[in-house]
Design brief:
By secondary structure, the chain is of the alpha/beta class. The chain has helices at residues 3-9, 92-98, 133-145, 165-175, 194-201, 217-230, 258-268; strands at 17-30, 33-41, 52-56, 67-70, 73-77, 80-87, 105-112, 123-129, 151-156, 178-183, 190-191, 209-214, 234-237, 253-255, 280-282, 289-291. It starts with a helix and ends in a 10-residue tail after the last strand. The structure holds flavin-adenine dinucleotide and FE2/S2 (inorganic) cluster.
Length: 301
Amino acid sequence: MSRAQAAAKKPLRSGWSQVAAEVVRHQDYGAGHRWLDLEVPRTFGRPVPGQFVQLLLRAPAPVLLPRPMSVAAVGERGNRRVLGFLYGPVGSGTRALAQHAEGDRLEVLGPLGQGYPLETPGTPVLVAGGRGVAPLLFAAEALGAAGRRCEFFFGARNKAALVGLEDAHRQLDRHGGRLHLATDDGSKGMRGTVVDLLERAAGRLPPPLVIHACGPHAMLEAVGLWAMRRGSPAFLAMESVMACGTGVCRGCPMPRSPEAKARYLETRGDAPSLLGNAEYAMCCTEGPVFSAGDLDWERVD
Ligand SMILES: Cc1cc2nc3c(=O)[nH]c(=O)nc-3n(C[C@H](O)[C@H](O)[C@H](O)COP(=O)(O)OP(=O)(O)OC[C@H]3O[C@@H](n4cnc5c(N)ncnc54)[C@H](O)[C@@H]3O)c2cc1C
Ligand code: FES
């Protein structure tokens, strides 16, 4: 059975709950971003890197629907669990979130979606673009806790946009991983894109490389196509505007590649489900982490 077929047969993660959460830390994180720690009961499932939650603001709030957010850190505190998030206040929901102070409460639904398959044998290569670093800080921590070193590639427009750089340094120092930096303007690390940097460094890393990436879709497409050309597995955390986060509203379609479509029909048929259908995967239930070869990049927004 191929790796893709095995993955298709693997049961998808579910088991979410909705709980009240308390803000226990909320501070500036540089380059206009914020770091948020939310305390939830220990009964809330422990997220794995790449999974996300839906943050639902309490009324009166300027937005009706929850907003999806990747988990950037998880800690335990007695019978409570602390979830860390790195986010940019870009619109009404995240700007209202930014007004929350310590002690304020909101609702959290999760953990949602499928995380990175960090157990895949090979050299874990984490590739972050800008604020896409969030789930990869968590991935570096999880790999380190499992005694595995990673190679961490981090790219952004400029030095200031390498948000979370200090935390990435700290994670990698603790666990012996290596950081590789690139900026478009050359203000930090190599001048160029993170894919240029990957191309330059890949030959010096112990094969096989297994890529886990998060960032803007254009970057993920470039990383995915680069990895597919080399025959390296690549797992990419995609983003879509979401409403329910649980597969019900059908609002977050991701176009399947012909191979993924054939595999879907073979393994799941055309029975209705909270996954997508043969043509489209739902980003919230089958993703947000997808294998690069499972998406039709011509049709990804
Ligand atoms: C699985 C997942 C994980 C995410 N993780 C993070 C994270 O860790 N940190 C973080 O800062 N953001 C993350 N996002 C994006 C975040 O959910 C959006 O920025 C947020 O929903 C915007 O809500 P808003 O009300 O502030 O903005 P809106 O007023 O709804 O929109 C403001 C602008 O943001 C754009 N936008 C809205 N939703 C998204 C989206 N999902 N992706 C890209 N652009 C969007 C809109 O098109 C618009 O231009 C994630 C999204 C998904 C799907
Ligand atoms: S957000 Fe509703 S189906 Fe994905």
